[in-house]
Every structure is written in structure tokens, then in C-alpha cells.
TrEMBL record:
The lineage of its organism: Eukaryota, Viridiplantae, Streptophyta, Embryophyta, Tracheophyta. This is Expansin-like EG45 domain-containing protein. One of its GO terms (biological process) is anatomical structure morphogenesis. Residues 135-217 form the Expansin-like CBD domain. InterPro entries: Expan_Lol_pI, Expansin/allergen_DPBB_dom, Expansin_CBD, Expansin_CBD_sf, RlpA-like_DPBB, RlpA-like_sf. Belongs to the expansin family. Residues 16-121 form the Expansin-like EG45 domain. Transmembrane segments: none annotated. Gene3D superfamilies: Expansin, cellulose-binding-like domain, RlpA-like domain. It comes from Mikania micrantha. GO terms for cellular component: extracellular region; plant-type cell wall; plasmodesma.
Amino acid sequence: MYNLLVFWISVMRARNGACGYGSFATSFYNGRLAAVVPSIFKSGSGCGACFQQIRCMDSKLCSKSGTQVIVTDLNNNTRTELVLSSRALMAMANKGMEQQILRLGSADVEYKRVSCDYKGKNLSVRVEESSDKSQYLAIKFLYQGGQTEIVAVDIARVGSSNWSFMSRKSGAIWETSWVPVGAVQLRLVVTSGYDRKTIWAKSVLPANWNVGVVYDSGVQIDDIAEEGCGRCDLIWK
């Protein structure tokens, strides 16, 4: 089902956003990004959610195909639910109407949530700069496919059954003060169907992991979470 929306012109916020994607955000869907209200942001578990066919209803101004965006930020504007980047907004326009849509004040639009598709990329993790092998580890999840949310993360040394939980630091970043000695495996709980599913990434970080490096988890998430979506409001940034 589609939902009618209204968008207002807004000032673009910092690109790193509340999800903590940093410079990676602009590489997602060619910079077609969205900020969402807390009810969709879900304390960070909504980071990485994808929406498609966001399109305005003015056929002279906007194309029928619309555009697809990914959630990278939190929007605290109580009047609206989605805030689009200028690239996403222009992607809705008919050819030659890009500047006109940037100047548009408001319009009816519609959208639906869909699976994220990273063209075969596995779920990856980036070791954040604050990490320390002896006492602290913070990782950021990238390329989370499917229509899912990561709701829990456990960590253990490869070959061990002694799991410890990680906590969500902010957005897509998870942390722990219990750092396994040696190579690291992860166990993720994601939304799937009307329930949840456990995904086991058997070897994610090598024993000699380094900060700032992105590591391939070896797994792809393509599950679909069945959920409703209420009426939303949308603005661009």
C-alpha cells in the first residue's frame, strides 16, 4: 500500500547523521538519503531501511517511477516523518524539472518500504576509531540487505561458545567493553516475517583487526519483515 505524504523545503543537515554512516552515506543509492522521525528511526534500528517509489503526485513535475532512498539520519521535525536529500528530491522530477522541484514548497507524495539491494554485497562491519583491542570494540554495520532491522548482536571468539552481548551505541554502531582475544564471530538477531531470526556470521574480524577497516561478514541478509506503515509526512534536506 502507498501512503499520502506532504513535504516541505528544509535545510540539509550534516551528512553523517544520527545513524553514524559518515562518508559511507553518500555512496548509498547515489546519495538519495532520508532522515526519519523517532517512530521510524526506532532508536537506531531503522537505520538502513529503504523506501521506494517516493514520488509526488504532480505529473507535470514528477515522474511516475519516483525514486528509492535509504534512512541515514534522525528527523525531529514533528510535522513530518521523512526528510529527503536534494539528490533524492531531484530524482523524483521529470527530465528538465529538477530545479523546479527543488524550489517546490509542498506537494502530495507517496511511498512504500522495500528491501535494500546492494548488488550482491555482503553485510559488512567497520571497526570504529574509538576501538581498543584490550578493552573496547565499536563496530558499524554497512550494506544491510533485505527489509530487516538488527535488534540484537552477540560477540564471541571464533570457535568459542562463550557469547557476550553488544549494546547499540547509536544508529548503526554497536559497542562492547568485552573484546574477545583472537578472531571474532557475531550472532545477529534480525526482524524476519512476523517474528525474528538469528543469523550467524562465523568469522567477521581477524585476530589482527585494525580500526578504520571494513570487514566482510560473509553473510547476506535478504529477509523480509512483515509490518505495516502508517501515514507519513516528508520533507527534503
